[in-house]
Amino acid sequence: MTGKTERKTRRVAIAGFHIESVSFLDAVAALEDFELVALRGAGIVDTLRGTNTVMGGFIDVLEEGGVDILPIVHAALGAVGPASDEAVQHYAEEIAQAVLADGDHIDGVLLFLHGACWAPSYPDPERYILAKARQALGAGKPLMVAFDYHGNIDDRTLENVDAGFAYRKSPHTDTGETGRRSARCMVRTLAGEISPVWAIAKPGVLVPSIFSATALKPLADIIEQAAVLERSRPEILDMTVMAGFSYADAHNTGFSVLCVADSARDRAQAAADEISAALWNAREALYRPLPVYSVDDAIDRVMQGLASRKAGGKPYVLLEHADRMNDSTYVLAALLERGIHNAAVPFIWDPEAAARALEAGAGSSVELSLGGHSSARAGPRLHVHAKVLWAGHKEFRMSGNYMKGMPVNLGTAALLEVGGLSISVVTYPAFGVSGDPFYIFGQRPEDFDIIVLRSKTHFRDFYEPISQEILIVDTPDHGPADLTLLPYARLDTSTVYPFNKGGDVPGH
Ligand SMILES: [Zn+2]
User: Fold this and answer.
1) 170 CA to middle of ligand 1, Å?
2) Measured in angstroms, how far is the CA atom of residue 225 from the centroid of ligand 1?
3) How far is it, in rounded angstroms, from Cα 292 to Cα 299?
4) Rounded to two decimals, what is the model's pTM?
5) What domains appear along the chain, each with residue ranges and CATH number?
6) Which of 71, 248, 281, 345 could form a disulfide with 116 if both were Cys (CB 3.0 to 4.6 A apart)?
7) Is the dihedral of CA 34, 37, 42, 47 positive or negative?
8) Which of 4, 69, 9 shows the shortest CA–CA distance to 191?
9) How far does residue 438's CA lie from ligand 1's centre (Å)?
């Protein structure tokens, strides 16, 4: 069979730059920090093919569709402080240069960006990166982007793209699927099947990250409403409710509703507006769907629970959620002070303590300062007498549904026993979101009465089924549940709940 014209193999560039910036933190993620985890060229495809990541999803669909992949760079950090200007500039430039160098060979660009990056000289770094990519790609070829569900975006962020997508779940168990949704849209667009257009609506609502978990009601109901709308209107290709990230102070912080439609911008806008209105109407319940405890009240409740049950029950999770740097010590200090045993405090970010433990060696006892080093708000630096159970270099691939297969490098790490508590310290920040913090040391989470975690929502996928109860503990750290405590300067708080309490949907 021959067609009128020989069908040329399509070629799509893929790249990723990802950081969730707590803009209130002083510690800036420098270019070197990104470079520690950066992948390039074939390394991206070899490392991330088959993983539950956005890149993994891009690669799946493009390879299945017989599309040539130009893998450029993938530099992804988690939730830390601002990115340095240099880092934003570097990756924007690297992506643009690679696209330019490929010139006419390239048919489209697919990017993975967080959406809540913040850098001192870039009010909207993702918009900047997308603008550079568009400049390099030229007009008339599709540029598409996949965001994190916690991205803060607005219509200007998207001004250079043909379609935008984001995770629909938190815990982000659909990262690979988000990559696939985006890449399918790219492949169909290149085949001439669809002409995507997008619309966005901002309801003017903020929630603390803990309450962005998508199984919580009423959020779950509104997300379902968006899914029904997508299914029932043929012109709607994709709808995403994005919670935004309240700890990044930017002009566009907060929820967004993103809708991609086939050649029907007005309908995309109407659909986004409809869901946006539902979010605004539910603002109070979205903001506080579960109780928040003080450290003492939470521990009292757990101790009562433990006292009244038979041996062998499930562990309680104390969620020290306001910690943004994995080194808060408020809960740990209280556990030590009360002489509580059989509790685990995994993945405290403390390179110094890890190095000292390694120096002392397994089996030895050592005096250590622990945690509380990232800022004055991270709680007291604790001076403890620790037994080193294990110390060395640790790397692993993530188990569990969230980011399954993603490689994690903890650097020098150690497992310590302090006053009956099991504590691990790591050199590179990592979150306890699955059983990994236990498995890598030959432990089981089910064997502890109390587990202290710092993840905001991702831990729920693994820990909800195996825990007795999850107690959200508020501490005076950088990520409080009460958002009115935050010193927003760039966000116009008069336009967003919980500052703006009432009335009609703002900005429409
Ligand atoms: Zn996220």
Assistant:
1) 7
2) 21
3) 13
4) 0.86
5) 11-287 (3.40.50.10350), 295-480 (no CATH)
6) 248
7) negative
8) 9
9) 23
CB 216, CB 460: distance < 8 Å: no
CA–CA distance, 495 with 505 (Å, rounded to integer): 10
Q: How does residue 5 score in pLDDT terms, banded at 50, 70 and 90?
A: low
- b (16+ CB within 10 A) / e for 371-407: bbbbbebbbeebebebbbbbbeebeeebebbbbbbbe
* Ligand 1 midpoint to CA 172 (Å): 7
Protein residues within 5 Å, CB atom, of ion ligand 1:
148, 150
Query: Which residue do the tokens 């929630």 mark?
Result: 207
Helix, strand, coil % in the chain, rounded to nearest 5 = 35, 25, 40
Beta-bridged to residue 144, according to DSSP, are: 110, 163
To which residue do tokens 């740097």 refer? 325
Q: Are 89 and 96 in contact (CB under 8 A)?
A: no
457 CA distance to ligand 1 middle (Å): 9
Asked if residues 52 and 173 have their Cβ atoms less than 8 Å apart, the reply is yes
CA of 147 to the centre of ligand 1 (A): 9
Contact partners, residue 209, CB within 8 Å, separation at least 6: 150, 243, 245, 246, 247, 321, 456, 457, 479
Q: What is the mean pLDDT of residues 205-227?
A: 96
Q: How far, in Å, is the centroid of ligand 1 from the Cα of 355?
A: 31
Q: How far is the CA of 148 from the centre of ligand 1 (A)?
A: 5
**52-67 pLDDT per residue, tens:** 999 999 999 999 999 9
Reading the block at residue 96, the tokens are 């643009």
pLDDT at 416 over 90: yes
Model confidence pLDDT, tens digit, residues 306-326 = 998 876 799 999 999 999 889
Q: How sure is the predictor about 1, in pLDDT bands with cuts at 50, 70 and 90? A: very low
Q: Residue 216: which of 314, 131, 288 has the closest Cα?
A: 288
Write down the mean pLDDT value for the chain. Answer: 94
278: helix, strand or coil: helix
- The Å distance, Cα 89 to ligand 1 centre, comes to 23
How far is it, in rounded angstroms, from Cα 414 to Cα 441?
9
What does each C-alpha distance from 488 to 23, 24, 196, 499 come to in angstroms? Answer: 10, 9, 35, 11
Q: Give the torsion through C-alpha atoms of 112, 113, 115, 116, to 10 deg.
A: 140
